[in-house]
């Protein structure tokens, strides 16, 4: 468990903090906010990311980093609504900053970041999860959308592979 906590913490600062924090700051310098309500979108995105990282440690007993994967498929918490809550949270934080600062450069960056993430999920993560968790992942993938959250949380049917 300690390795999962340390690994997840390191990955948190190496990935989401860079993608949703450092790079937007580099692009825009976090100029004077112009549309304060958008701060709620940024905060919500950050909360979703943090909750997903905690879920990876507690439920999956691993990290989100490909070099130290989870022991179990993570399907609880926010993962019951959307298969990729970490990516959704990161993109929400970036797009929230685009709205907060009314900066089209951040909007373009957010769309580009999502395209990279979606490609990574489609061509790397999904095949790996299918290989590692077989029918358990297939059941989950059929029931839970990748990017637009469900209205009601998914509940596992108990079918195992």
Count of the domains: 1
Topology order in helix (H) and strand (E) letters: HHHHH
Name the helicity range: 55-70%
Low-confidence spans: none
Helix count? 5
- Span of the ends, CA to CA: 26 Å
Helix/strand structural class: mainly alpha
Overall residue-averaged pLDDT value: 93
- Overall shape: it is globular
Strand content: under 5%
Report the biggest beta sheet as strand number plus sense, adding barrel if it closes.
none
Number of strands: 0
The Cα radius of gyration reads 16 Å
Overall description:
- This protein is mainly α and 161 residues long.
- It has one domain (2-143).
- It has 5 helices and no strands.
- Helix 1 (2-14) packs antiparallel against helix 3 (39-58), helix 2 packs antiparallel against helix 5 (104-143) and helix 4 (85-101) packs antiparallel against helix 5.
- The chain is globular and about 50 Å long.
- The mean pLDDT is 93.
Task: List its salient traits.
161 residues
SSE layout and pairings?
Layout lengths: L1 H13 L1 H13 L10 H20 L26 H17 L2 H40 L18
Helix pairs in contact: 1-3, 2-4, 2-5, 3-4, 4-5
In brief, what are we looking at here?
This protein has 161 residues and is mainly α. The protein has five helices and no strands.
């Amino acid at each position: 468990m300690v390795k999962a906590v340390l690994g997840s913490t390191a990955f948190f600062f190496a990935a989401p903090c860079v993608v949703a924090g450092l790079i937007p700051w580099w692009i825009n310098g976090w100029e004077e906010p112009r549309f304060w309500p958008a701060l709620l979108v940024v905060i919500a995105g950050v909360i979703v990311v943090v909750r997903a990282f905690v879920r990876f440690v507690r439920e999956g007993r691993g990290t989100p980093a490909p070099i130290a994967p989870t022991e179990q498929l993570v399907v609880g918490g926010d993962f019951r609504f959307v298969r990729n809550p970490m990516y959704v949270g990161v993109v929400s934080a970036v797009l929230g900053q685009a709205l907060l600062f009314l900066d089209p450069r951040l909007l373009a960056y957010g769309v580009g970041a999502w395209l990279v993430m979606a490609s990574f999920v489609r061509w790397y993560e999904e095949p790996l999860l299918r290989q590692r968790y077989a029918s358990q992942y297939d059941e989950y993938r059929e029931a839970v959308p990748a990017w637009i959250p469900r209205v009601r949380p998914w509940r596992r049917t108990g079918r195992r592979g």
